[in-house]
Write a structure and sequence with these properties.
Blueprint: E1 6-11, H1 18-27, E2 29-30, E3 35-36, H2 41-46, H3 50-53, H4 55-60, E4 64-70, H5 78-90, E5 97-98, E6 100-105, E7 108-113, H6 118-130, H7 140-145, H8 153-162, E8 175-176, H9 183-198, E9 205-206, E10 209-215, E11 223-229
Antiparallel strand pairs: 1-4, 1-10, 2-3, 5-9, 6-7, 7-8, 10-11
């Protein structure tokens, strides 16, 4: 069977930033280079199964989803998608500013906004809409993997309309660091990661770029093939 590449429109911090280093080192993978990274020794010592706890997040690289992974429709190609990314980023818009914090979200640990951000919601909704013409129709198997019976009616509508349930009103910005953890397991790990994040002294974060990630096959990791700064209003 021929491997089918998937693409995703994500936010990810610029490669030379402290936040990018924070995420890549914790996940053990740098999506900018496609290379492995050593976990910090203190993380390995404190959490011996850290490799397993970050396995799913490692596959995608350190990111926040704007347009969830999709295969290209037959009518569109990668070069055209890159051009659309450049065009989207060049359209002047408000660049969201958030207060980033490390906290739990649905049992996962992630970097999330400390406060609501209407501008961030608008950016994500615009990305979902703008790149929809590139998305191939979802297969019944892909739909089933989203466990639609466990979704709300609105999320099922989003799944069928946009190929992903957590968009528009259900969008929640997050840059995942771990898998879902029990409360008992999560508490000490969360405290450790919060202390590590505090050392960055990152009081505000501009969501000022989009990146195009590509996954060559289902068994591959995503890596960055293009990045575009957002033009401010």
């Amino acid at each position: 069977m021929t491997a089918v590449a998937r693409y995703a429109i994500y936010y990810t911090p610029a490669a030379d930033t402290a936040l990018a280093e924070f995420g890549a080192s914790l996940l053990g993978y740098d999506a900018w280079t496609g290379g492995e990274r050593e976990f910090p020794s203190e993380i390995r010592d404190a959490v011996p199964d850290w490799t397993e706890l970050t396995g799913d997040a490692r596959k995608y690289g350190f990111h926040a989803t704007l347009k969830a992974p999709f295969a290209l429709t037959d009518a569109r190609g990668e070069a055209e998608l890159c051009a659309a990314c450049a065009s989207f980023a060049a359209a002047p818009r408000a660049v969201p500013l958030i207060r980033p914090v490390v906290d739990a979200i649905s049992g996962f640990i992630a970097v999330i906004p400390g406060d609501a951000s209407p501008a961030l919601q608008e950016l994500a909704a615009a990305a979902v809409t703008a790149f929809e013409p590139f998305r191939a129709a979802m297969s019944p198997e892909d739909r089933a993997r989203r466990k639609p019976d466990l979704l709300t009616p609105r999320q099922r509508d989003h799944l069928d309309r946009w190929g992903y349930p957590y968009v528009m009103e259900d969008f929640r910005f997050h840059m995942t660091l771990t898998c879902r953890l029990s409360d008992v397991r999560r508490r000490p790990i969360l405290s450790m990661l919060q202390d590590r994040f505090a050392a960055l002294e990152l009081s505000t974060l501009a969501i000022d770029r989009i990146a195009l990630f590509r996954q060559p096959s289902a068994s591959s990791r995503f890596s960055i093939i293009g990045s575009w700064p957002i033009t401010t209003t």
